[in-house]
Structures are given as C-alpha cells and as structure tokens.
Amino acid sequence: MAQLFVSHSSADNALAAEVKDALADLGYGSVFLDFDPTGGLVPGQAWRDQLFTNLDACDAVVFITTPQSVASQWCHSELALTRWLRKPVLALLVDGADPHPLIADLQGLKISAGQIDRDRVRAALGALGLEQEARWDAGRSPFPGLRAFDESYAAVFFGRDRQIDQLRQLVDPPSRSREGAIIPVLGPSGSGKSSLVRAGLVPALRVSDDWVITDPWTPSDVPLAEMSLALAHAAKLRQAELDADRCAELLRTPGGMAEYVRAIRASGQASAETKVLVVVDQAEELVTMTGEAERTAFLQALTTACTAPSPLRVVMTARTDMWDRVAAETGKSALQVAPTVLHVPPLSRSDLAEVISQPARRSHLTLEDGLVQRLVDDTGGGEALPLLAFTLARLAAESQDGRLTHAAYDAIGGVRGAIASRAGEVVTAGRTEQDVAEAVLHLVNLTDATPHKRLARAADVPPRHREILDDLVDARLVVINEVNDQQVYAPAHESLFSAWPPLAALIEKRRDDLVLRARLERRAGDWREGGATQSGLLAGLELAQARAWRSRNPDMGTADVTAYVDASAARQRRGRLVRAGVGLVVAALAVTLVVVLLVNARADRRRAEQARVGELAAIAQRELTHDPAAAAAALLRGLEINGSDRELRTAARTLLRSPARDVYRSPEQDSFYNIGVGGSVGAVTTGAGRALVWDTATERVLDLPESGALAVRPDGRVLVSVDSKAGIHAYDLAADLPAGGTPTPLSTFSPDDGSVPVLAFSHDGSLLAVARTSWVTLWDLRDPAAPRELTSWHSPKGDPTALAVLDDGRVLSASVSSQLVVWNALGDNSTAELVPGRSDSGVQHLTADAAGEHVLIDFPTFEDVALVDVATGTPVGSFRASLPDAPPTGLPPVSWTSSLSPDGHTVATFDLAGRGYVFGAEDGAYLGGLTGGHTSLVSESLFDDDGMLLSASVDGSLRLWDPRSSELELSDDPRADLCRVFGDRIDDDSWRLAFEDDDREALCPGHERAAPPPLKVSSSADIGALPEVAAPGTVVFTDGFDGATPFGTGPQPVSTGTVTASVKGGRYRMESAGLGPDYTAWRTAPVSGAGATWSVRVTPGRTRGACGLYAGDGATQLVVTLDRDSGEGRAEWFSGSGSTHVLPFTAPPGSAGPLALVDDQGVIAVLLGGRRVATTVDPVLRPPTTIGIATRGDTASCDVDDITLTTAP
C-alpha cells in the first residue's frame, strides 16, 4: 500500500483535512497528516524527528500549494528534505497558486478548495506509480508457507517497514556516497532475510525507473554463470540484447557494468542515473555449495564489477553464523563490503500481529476472535517465524468460507505442530516414519552443530526416496527446482529439520555419517575440479572410513563421491603390489615416520589455529562499526592464540583508530529521541513510551517510566525526567538497585501543566532551566533532593524550543518565533538578542561550551550550523553535514542535528542518513566521519566531558563515538590497547555476537571503578542574588471601602458553588464555597494611569483559606493568593485558554502584613509585609487596566481593609 505524506502550512489545516479525506475516499488508507489525532504527531515525542521519520517512510509527498505554504519556512524545509530523499511529489496548486520554487520543475495539479476532483488526483498518483493498494488477487492465499515471500507477495508483506527503509537507504543513499558495493543482510535461519529483500526491498526500488534489478538468485556450483544469466534476463526485460556470455565478459572487465548500463540506455530503457542491483540470496552457499575454483572466479569478477565508479550494488543475504566464512572469502579478493551491516531483528509482538492480520484482510480471510493473540503467543521468538508462516498457509488452505478458527488451529497441532502433522500425513500405508525421514536425509547438510539445507539432484536420489520427496513437494515441505538443467530437491525451509521429531532424532543418530558425507562431497568436488588425478585421493584410515560409510549408506552417495571412493580404492590395490619388497625399508624408516607424524601434528595444530584466527579476524571486520565491542572481543581472543598475527594486529589498529566505541540496541526496535548525556551516562525517550538510561562505563541499562523530556546532569549522577503528573522527578543514577530495579525519585518539582517541557542543565550541574509553554523557569539543583525555584521569565516570542544554561546563570533560549535570546536570569533579569539581525524560528538545538563563551546553533533551514560568540553574538564558524570536497548537488547538504564538545574544540553534525561529520571548532578543519553505524536519522547527539559523543537514532540504537580516535596513542601491545579502550564495554550482547554463546569470560584484567561524583554540587553563580525592584509611590487608585465600591457586592455567577461579596465596617469581604480545589475567583474594578512600573497592594483583615489580589491588562490576568495559615502561596497567569503559568512561593505560617504585586518594567516581585517572597520576569504583561480581590480553592473567606494601585512618577 502506498504511504503518502501531506505537507501543508498550518494556516491551511482545514484544506489539508479535506485532502486527506479525498485520499481516503480513493483508497489511500496510509496517509500522514501532522495534526491527525489518530495517525499524526504523538504528544510527548520529538515532533521534528517524527515528521522526518514519516517523511522518510512515505512513498510520496502531496504538497498543498498556497501562498501560505510557499511562504512557510517549515514547508520549505519539508520540500528540501523530500527532494534530497528523492521522493515523488504531487503538488496540488490550490486556486491558481504558483508552484513552490523547489518543485517548479514538476508538473502540478490544479485544484479548487472545497472542490477536489478525486478522479484527477487518482490519475496523477497513478502516473507516479502509486497505486492505492498494490494489486492482489483476493482469491489467492496470502501466506506462502515455508517458502520466502517473493515480489509477487509484496502486496501482503507486512511488519518490516523500518527494515525496508533502512535497507533502501543503504542500497541507495540520498547523498549517493559509496561505503562499499556489497550490502550484507544478516540474520539467523528463519528470521525473514530473504522475504525482506525479495518482497520488501526489490518492489520498493522498482517504483523508480532508475534501477535495473535482477531476479534474486541463490549460488550453487557455478555462481558466475548464474549471475550472468540473471543480468542477461534483466537486460532482456529492458529490450537490450545482452546474452549471458556477454554479461560474464562485462563482469570480468573493468568498467564493464557501466557498459552494461549504456547498452540498456541504447535501447531507450535507462538513463544516466540508472543503477544495477543484484540480489544474492543465501550467500552462505558460496562456501557450502560452490567449489573453490568457481568461488574464486566469481568473487574476482564481482570485485572487478564493483570497483568504483560502478553502477552495481549487490545485496547479499546470509545466516549470521555463516557470514564470517563468506567475509573471509570476500576479503581474499579485496571486495568492498559496506561497513554497515543490516541485521534483521526478530519481529515484535505488534509486528507479528500485523503479519497475521493484514495479509488475511487483503484476501478477505477472517480470524476468529482471539486467534491472532494466540498465534502471537505461540510463536514467541523470531526463531518460530517459519512455523507461523506454515501454520497460516495450512489454515488458509483448509479454511471453510474464509474463516480461520481455533478448532482448525488445534486440529493441525498449533504453530509448533503444524509441520509435524503435515509430515506425518506422508507416512501412508507401506511407509514408516523411518522411511520418510531417511528420504529427507538427502536434503540435510551437516558441517557443524546445526543441520542446514542441501540440494539433492534427482538423479542422485533412489527411486523409492524420490517418490517420498515428491509427496513432500505436494505437502509443501519440499520444493523442486531446476539448477543447471537438472532437477534438484531442497527443503522448503530448514525448520523442517527440527519441527518433525522423527527426522530430528534420525539426524542426531546419523550425525557422524552426515558430517562424513559433507566432507567426502567437498573432497570429491575438489578432486574433480583438479582433473581427477592421483593427487588428493583417499588413503589409509580415511579410505577405510569412506568405504565403511558407503557400505552403511548405499543410498546416500552421489555419483561424484562414488567415483572418488572407487578411484581411491583402485590406487590402494595397485599400491599393495609394490609393498611386498619394502619390509626392511619400512623398518628402517620407522623412527623417521614417528618424527614426521609429530611434525604433521604440529602442522595440523598450526593450520587449525590459523583457521580460527582467520575466522576471528572476519568477525572483527564484520562487527567493526556494527558492534565495536564485539569486534574487540574477537580480536582479543585471536591475539591470545597468536599475538604476532599481522592480520589481527592490523585489524586491532584499525578498530582503535576508528571512532566507533560502543552500541546499545533496543530489543523492541524503538525509535530514540530527546537524548541526555552526562559523564558516562546516556538517556533517551523512546518511541515505546519509556525512558532508557545506559551507562556506557558499566553497561548497566535502566528502564524508567514514560517520559516527555529528560536531561542528565553533566557529571552523570542525576537524571531529571518529566514522567509524572505531579511534576519533574529527580533520580540518583548511582543508587544501588536490585537487578531490573527502578530508582526511587529523590524529589518532585515543577508541577505538570500538560505541556512537554524543554530541559537544560548548566555545565556545573547546579542550575536547571525548564521551559513550559511560553515560560522559562530557573531552578537551583545544587541539592537534587531539594530543588528550589529561583526565577522565571515569560518569553515574548512564544514557546521555547531549545535552551542552554551557562554556569553564571545566563540562559540562552530559542523559540517558535523568530528570536534567539540571552536571559540574564541571575543578574539584572535583562534580555537581549543572541544573534543580532538573525531571524530564525524553531531552532531545535543549542549547545554551549563549558566556559560559556560559544554556542552552536542548529538553524532550522538544515543548511546552516553556526558557532556564535555569546558575548558579541558574532558567528565565528559555520559547518555542514558533508565532506569538504564533496561535489555540488542540486540541493545543499542537510544538517539534521549537531553538537559542540564541552571544551569547545570539536563540532559533530549528522545528515539525514545517520552519517556524522566531525570538524575542529576553531578552524573548521574536517577531522573525520562517523559512518557505518546508524542506518537511519540521528535524532540527537551530545558530547560528554571526556569528548566522547553519544548519538540516538530512530533506528533504535544508541552509539558511542570517539571523534578524535585518530589521535589515540597506541603501544606495541594491541591487547593492552584493546583492553584499555574496550575492556569494560564487552557485555553479554557483544560476546554473543562475537562467539555465539552465553558463557562470557573475562578477556581483560579487572580494575577498580572510580567512585561516583557527589550527589550535591556547588555553583560559581550568585544563586542568592535578586534583581532590584523599584517601589512606585504615585497613587493611581485606592479604595478603603468606606462607602460605595466599584468592586461590586452581592452574589457572583459561577458554574458550581457560590461567590458573594459585601462591605461592612470599612472592610470588603469576599467569600467562596463549593468551587473546587483549583478554582480561582475574583472581583475587579477598572483602573487607568499605571506606567511601566506599578504595584497593587492589599491590606488584609481576617482571612480563612487562600486570599489575594488580581491585576489584568485585557489579555492576561495575574492572580496572587496566599493561605496565611499554611504559608502556601502562588502567582498564576491566565489567558482566554485558562491557566498558562504558576509561580509557587512559601511564607512562614501565620505571616501577617500587606500582600503586594510589583512590576518594575517586566521584573515582577511578590511582597509580603514588604519582604520579597517570589520573583519572575514577564515582559509580556502590560500595565493593568483592571485590579481586584481574589480567592482560590474550594472555600475561602477574605477580608480586605484597602486596595491600592501605585505607579512610578
């Protein structure tokens, strides 16, 4: 199904909703519209990253062109990203609007607001290759069983959208950079690698005419010929006359693939942008099925064909446990393998449910209530995915009236029993389970602990076994194909070997015979390729074992193995004739023979060690950027075996000089946003609605409650997280916890107002700025167990989007409007433009150095990352996410997120593909790249004090980098260097990747860890300082309540409860009851004459509950109330939409004296008895036009002796 993204101006929301409705009417059910409550932006998550994620995932963009969208900076940015990602665009030109300049070269569709011609929209989308639903025959089963999904099943292939997008970016990166022509797609057997490529990637790329794509193929004994045939067939579909022999010649010729494309262009079926994709499925067959000579010829030709510049890209799927052997072979020919490996993760529970329900929907199949959940529960981990696929295929094939029921599911034995019951059906009269299992042994290859598939030529299978295999073909457990003009049998999937108990038992019983067969077939193949000479024949014990094996297994040997064993036996018989006269010679040479045997034994050990070292080097190469700690583990183990091995030492140096240091991957494939970094700690909010904390020094991972925003104190000891309705929680990350435990909050502060705040610590950790709606509050966090509000500021330019706090108390703020501001929060509370003359809205990242001298600004154009002198506002550097010598393109590079190191020396910036670029801050010199790790957008990145960089990506990974790794001092002992850098980073996951077991061992000597930093910190700022506030003395208005009053008396209408007012004995009494705990009421009177400095003061009489005063300027109402019995007070701002800001304060219980509100040109103070109890800054509030008396809470009785408004002369 085509996924569409609607880009529009917020001024055109109503029109955008109309367009979405029209698309829905046309059958486009997957449409992203930012304000859509069901499928739009998720509250509490980073909206900018969500926009990109949906833009990246879509198939096309529908741009609503109006004067407002043409003028919109964000629409401009969205279109720039769209063109950079090379997405198709349908521009809807509303009411004659001119096209946007970025897409003026594209044909638009004229529409009228309120009268959208749906037929013309359908035709326009169809012309872009965007069918509302991929064509699917609803009468066809959507489940292919044990076979992989192929391109014909693309319309019912669900659950892998993220991996399809990641793989598409690797194969066809937007910037067209080449990190290696071979892209590995790895996963365990049954993980869905083949389906991902065949039914996901290939159809996704075919939408564009820029790709010539071969049919996916699996190597056998002649891979070069097979690839040549695949290329020839792809060329034929483009009307190009290129046969297989010509394609083989082009593969072996430098520049041959460019010639291949030129030949297709000559037929009018390609362009200058055309690229070629070859999909090698199950590439492990190159080392299990292909002989050495053919494998070498294929890899050498592939190396030549892929040498840049070349239009060829090759995707290789392989089992994770076999890729090391494949990589070792590709390394021999210097074939360029991309450093970024796509590991196919297990499907999450929600994805499994989609895999079941969505294909069924497309074929009008219905599942009985609860069956989807039951199938998901029974499938469990990813290793059972083939069993689920076969189960669904059986249920669909045997369903009545298109209904899949619990009863049918039980009848076939459930997910775990469906294959076994199907295999049991082949056991008919005259056949035993043993007979059927014996026949399947022809399809089992055993070279290690795990059985793998084997192709069996029909000619090599006895007739009685061939009959059984044919029945298994009918049962869809075995497939039969034609390879090199011969019919061959193969298992539909390797899960057959473990899912049917009689077969699993027989494989285990015949393990030694199966291993020996595999060895004999390899030896026989090498002998045949070598010309069938006397060299390489069996002798002695090996020949005896082979002859005994053949007598035990007369039906298992192929013609090649039979010929090989016969030739070996014949040579042995000839040798006996010679031996009769050599008895004395043998005796004389006995001692020599013993020596030779000892030497050979040592040589065997050396060869085994060399083989193991080679495997470990290949593992290190595979994991170099994917999981550098796993690469380090493999190298440490290899250097234990042979510390002088040149390949290992070179790989160790490469790893240490590379910037990748560590990785954490989300088991649930969550997207990561809102990063916080401090010390060795990184924290992120996740797409699954939780907070995750990763200590890169100890590898400890904490799960915390769902968080809208978070920040880590720069020393890594304290985390603040917006994860409670009560407010922000502060956590001690050094607290001792049981396994899986969650820390208890130290404190709760900054009450929740329903908004998603922006948080930022000062570098010394003593100050925390919190931005909510249009207010910024500065907190004293020297003691995180007792946070204290210091002051606040009302931004006149709208909601803040990014903050940076300097140690001296200055706060740098960006907002949704067009001004970057410096607020001198602990000085005179003044504000000034950060970059005079620069007008940019929506800046998302501000990163200041520790000294407070410079700040890095991510401007929202995505083109400009500026380093600015804080004191002068002067830009002193500019950076872009691209190589300095990169050739110009039609669109400028897009810099999505950037960061400045605390020492101010290093800048890192990431592009849309997740590639990082590192520069020197002082001179702008390019220092290196951060590539090969993330497979999608990096949402945020931050440096720690040690200069390490942590990056969070929507691909579900956190990565730790050392951007200055090239400067690392190395010794002559690579093991010591590896332990120094990676020793603490080798966790269970890295060990498992390196060695495929869970028995982690210590590869490096232990050491004592440093004590955590103190919980409390000090500050260099004058935290106790308060700005001066003038005391205005000119009376503008006063009321002593000696007679009639403009505040009115009697009842006041309220929705619930009662509010009344009266005057008696020179006092004004306001009483409220039954209003609710948060209700604020006021009685007001109009005033005039107040200037920029003014004060409202009330002198209380007897009070009960929260009583106070009111000042309003026509747009904003400010109410100050105090419960004198408890000492709890608050200043609260109201607008037409309700409460917008609360400033709580406290006073000693029982405090007396007048309550006053003073505004000295935007600096606001609350005074009690002349003593200041609260201060804030609000340049938005104007002089009052109404003042009054107020109550707050369910019940209050407030007596006021007088109320006075004064102003400065």
UniProtKB/TrEMBL annotation:
Cytoplasm keyword on record: no
SUPFAM superfamilies xref list: P-loop containing nucleoside triphosphate hydrolases, Quinoprotein alcohol dehydrogenase-like, Toll/Interleukin receptor TIR domain
Superkingdom of source: Bacteria
Residue ranges of the TM segments: 577-599
InterPro entries named in the record: nSTAND1, P-loop_NTPase, Quinoprotein_ADH-like_sf, TIR_dom, Toll_tir_struct_dom_sf, WD40/YVTN_repeat-like_dom_sf, WD40_rpt
Keyword Metal-binding: no
Residue ranges constituting the TIR domain according to the UniProt record: 1-125
Cited Pfam families: nSTAND1, TIR_2
WD repeat boundaries on the chain: 931-971
GO BP term, pick one: signal transduction
Keywords: Membrane, Transmembrane, Transmembrane helix, WD repeat
Record's protein name: TIR domain-containing protein
Native source organism of the sequence: Nocardioides anomalus
